[in-house]
Amino acid sequence: MRALLWLLLLAQAGSFDTTFRAGLAALQQNDLSQAREQLESASQMEPRRAHVWLALARVYWKQHETELAGSAAEKAEQLATGDPVVLHGLGLFYSESGHYEKAADCEAAYAAQTPRDASAYPRALHLYLQAAKPKAAIDLAQKELVRENRADVRNLLGKAYEADGRHAEAVREMREAVRLSPYDESYMFDLARDLLQHNQLQDATQLLEDGRKIFARSAQLELTMGVAYYFSDAVDAFLRVTRIDPGVEQPYVFLGRMIEQSEDKLPEVTEAFAALAKANPDSYLANFLYGKALSFSGQQEQAEILLRRSVAEHGKFWESRLELGIVLERKRDWAGAAQELARAAELNPKNPAVHYQLARAYDRLGKTEEAKVEHALHEKLTQEENAAIRRQG
After folding, report:
1. What's the confidence (pLDDT) of residue 3?
2. Is residue 358 a contact partner of residue 345, using CB atoms and an 8 Å limit?
3. 301 & 337 share domain
4. Residue 294, domain CATH
5. What is the pLDDT of residues 72-84, one digit of tens each?
6. Quick check: is 184 in a domain?
7. Among 5, 184, 235, 341, which is most exposed with the fewest C-beta within 10 angstroms?
8. Which range of residues forms the domain containing residue 281?
9. Domain count, the chain
């Protein structure tokens, strides 16, 4: 009797393996109806096999049956019990379906199971950043750095600190990444860009000068160096033009774009914008520029008046909407900020800064799903911008 039962079990196992493999083969060939039929049969034979549910999740997703796909993925996750293949597969599935936090959790669990896969922790960290979960990324990076001091993890930890609003720690970690891997140009570029974004022109210039000694033929570093020098000298030049001929519009536009990098000359720039607005009280551009300068110097009430005037004069000028949204954020009017920033995003959907600010407003309003969408758009557009810069180099 026992021998007969053993034979029956072996036959069932063989039948499961055959059906499961047939389902995987059909999935690989993108024969989704056949894959679904075989894999659903396999799931009935062995309902506690995580691999089957993972494959079914993939089939359902390809068939645009998102609820079934999510349910199958959850079953796979429940049954995975630390299986690195399933965890990694789930990470890929959740990433493709836009559930970045779940993807990061699975990839982090996979990384803990497979220390020999050096790319696992960076993948998990990238996913936490895509999910707008910098604190989770910080915790994971710190744990991995206890095990191994790695430049790629230090660099990503710096980006996580930056996303969490902790600029000093971000610079510290990015500098450590450069120290650990001085011949990796991308780490130096990331640090230089971060310094420039925070108006630390002297530090950025010194870093890039040092980088020239190593990357003597790097077009990318030369371009960034030009930006660092350009801001300091260009502000003075444009201010001179406004004094020579106040009626020429272009230097004011350039100064408006560079205001974040001209903090040491902000009083002179604000004075130039004030004179422009006084001479052109009905100009949407003059009111926008003067309002932006006042906001940057902390005068939010007057800035809001000017920016609302600019919006009233030219409702489709997206930059006025963006700056007004930022002013309202600073005044903690999250609903008003979200309204203006959403309109700015409609007017200029390709600008990453708009999506970043809108995501922050949604976060403050507790609109988690909307915030995730905006964070993902910001990440995608930023990556596209960086890729374009590298191609130009």
Report:
1. 39
2. yes
3. no
4. 1.25.40
5. 999 999 998 889 9
6. no
7. 5
8. 246-314
9. 2
The answer to whether residue 105 sits within a structural domain is no
What is the distance between the alpha carbons of residues 227 and 218, in angstroms, rounded to a whole number?
A: 15
> Cβ of 344: how many Cβ atoms within 10 Å?
26
Which residues make Cβ contacts (< 8 Å) with residue 219, sequence separation at least 6? 392, 393
Which parts of the chain register pLDDT below 50?
1-13, 393
Q: Do 341 and 375 lie in a common domain?
A: yes
Amino acid at 164: D
Residues sharing a CB contact under 8 Å with residue 279, sequence separation 6 or more, in sequence order: 246, 286
Q: Which of 343, 299, 304, 336 is nearest to 321 (CA)?
A: 343
On whether residue 363 sits in a domain, the answer given is: yes
Q: What is the pLDDT of residue 155?
A: 97
pLDDT for residue 390: 57
Q: How long, in residues, is the chain?
A: 393
| 121 neighbors 111 (Cβ within 8 angstroms) | yes
* pLDDT score, position 145: 95
Last residue of a domain, one of 314, 335, 361: 314
Q: Which CATH number covers residue 361? A: 1.25.40.10
Is residue 306 situated within a structural domain?
A: yes
